[in-house]
Amino acid sequence: MTARRGYPAVDRFRVAAALLVVCIHTAPLASFSAAADFALKTLARLAVPFFFTATGFFLLGELVRPGLRPRTLSPGVRRFLKKTGVLYAACTVLYLPVTLYAGNFPVENVLGELVRDAVLDGTFYHLWYLPAALLGVLVVCGLLRFLRPGAAAGVCGALYLAGLLGDSWYGLAKQLPALKEGYDALFGVMDYTRNGLFFAPAFLMLGALLAGFPARRRPRVCLAGLGCSLALLFAEAFGLRALGWPRHDSMYLALVPCACFLFLCLLVPRGGDAPFLREFSMLVYVLHPMAIVGVRGAARVLHAREWLVENSLAHFAAVAAASCAAAWLLARLSQRRRWDGRSGTAPKPDLRRARAWAEVDLEAVARNAGALQGCMPAGCRLMAVVKADAYG
User: Fold this and answer.
1) How confident is the model at residue 334 (pLDDT cuts 50, 70, 90)?
2) pLDDT tens digits, residue range 158-184?
3) Going by C-beta distance under 8 Å and a sequence separation of 6 or more, which residues neighbour residue 247?
4) Does some domain include residue 351?
5) CA gap 215, 217 in Å, rounded
6) In a domain, 140, yes or no
């Protein structure tokens, strides 16, 4: 029996996407050319939409299948919410000393500020992604509970357009007094519109649609679409920059087709999946601000600020190397802990010495069970039956 076929290109691109996020926070080309660094930053804006699209594809695809109207959150969604919530809490504790040292802990209206940061803006500048994923998944699941996929996608698109006017297209909103007053009031509640309400649902829904309505994928068409979409993205970003419209630069119109065609390109190669890369890339994302602090501290101790901080490319390389080293070590330790049975699971079998084996994706089984349960009348329950010495 061959290994379960997955999407290896998606898993590999997770690492590239994590490094693109490091680019955003370290500005690798700033020492050489502001325009080149802005172009790289614009390209790097694809990273977070990719992560959200991947989450929607693997987690929410079953929700858009015809005839399925889930009444409750599926087991897979509940596990995702629990796992991401625990990770978010752990990251908040990890970065609390840095937050206190930087003087970013709220001192006025403490409760309100903490709730806002925890739900919308993130407890540290890069952690906004985690509450955005949590809130975005809940928003999409709620929409699909009451609306058909097309209508739900329309609502997600409208939310994205509303967020767009508070981000890179803010200059347009400022020209209309009613819109300006509305967004000024909105920014009294949140710092940015790139959050789980305006930003995440669109790409989560995009991933769900790509999974729920599979179509024949032509690599050349996908690559051509990606190339055209990237050209539109750069034109939009530089055009808005010239106009001075952006309040922030996380959201662009062209990001939606870019994320779509990028993900379609990554779906073409099929093969075994790479769970290690998924964990490794998330750890790079989580740890890289700590690596920035560490590199700056090392530069001060070694009197190498000119090379490790002021040289933007060397600074990026040092931060990326430190982040990857720490992430690789932690991912290996986590993997070994699961394999040796200390986490309460059985040791990983040596399949090379087995006469035959079967690989069962328990998350897929749980998703299927949740989907069937959602289609059944109230009061009905599933009964598990195991057929001995059989297959199929």
Assistant:
1) confident
2) 999 999 999 999 999 999 999 999 999
3) 166, 167, 168, 170, 171
4) no
5) 6
6) yes
